[in-house]
Amino acid sequence: MVEIAWTEAVAGGAMIGAAAAAFFRVNGRIAGVSGIFGDIFLDRGQGQSAWRAAFIVGIVIGCLIVRVVHPASARIELQTGWAGMVIAGLLVGFGTRMGCGCTSGHGICGIARISPRSIAATLIFMLSAIATAVLIHRLGVLR
Amino acid sequence: MKPLSALVCGTLFGAGLTVAGMTDPARVIGFLDVLGEFDPTLVVVMATALCVSLPAFQWTKRHARPLLDVRFFLPERTRIDRDLVIGSSLFGIGWGIAGLCPGPAIAGIASGSIEIIGFVVAMAVGMTIRSLSYRSQPDHHECKT
Questions:
Q1: Considering only CB atoms, which chain B residues are within 8 Å of A5?
Q2: Using the beta-carbon criterion (under 8 Å), do A98 and B101 form an inter-chain contact?
Q3: Which residues have a Cβ under 8 Å from the Cβ of B30 and sit 6 or more positions away?
Q4: Scanning A6, A26, A128, B81, which has the fewest C-beta atoms within 10 Å of its C-beta?
């Protein structure tokens, strides 16, 4: 088993939870990254683009700041080639749109709201991802 | 004020993902590939996040409205329907291939990795393909809040 970087995992997790909680209390919105990102270009709603873009730009800025002040967190080791990245991106985009959410919207916010729909979604995408990762990265199917 | 608050929350969110190591697909696949050298970090991160968000959301729900808007915006769909099951399954397949879900993928743009930017573009295309079927109805949004 890989050793856990406890301090980083707990500090980072608390920051994620606090960000989602603050966004719900202040803006009244679910901090669901797939929905907020997609709605920038798919929801021609009225005057909703500014906060959506701000939230997404914030995610990039937050990552950038941590990469500078704590370079140990900057490691990014890709797990698949170009073809895998494109196919995975398409599936993640299509699937999160169809299922109305991803790890943040269903996993962090939906479970925090004790929404049965989000709890079901989280179980389904976790199991699906585990099955896929085992098949592709462990058993080498399709690789 | 709403965009400013969104910027601050987004920044904290992206910083948290990065501190936790979730922007590294190797850590995520290390968790998802349960038969390999198992990396439990992801579940510790999610559990810690929920320890904060769950009580906070329950407390917020007792208020009539959020600080900066007239009402809370919650998903209209509450049933566990076919779209949720199929959509979440497809999302899981993509997540299991690359070890990237939307938050960490967008945060990862900060690394300048051309492959991650490619993933985000493909994700936007996938979202657009899905939503094209709803374009004929002008006021329809399948994940309306």
A1: 21, 41
A2: no
A3: A2, B36, B37, B38, B39, B41
A4: A6
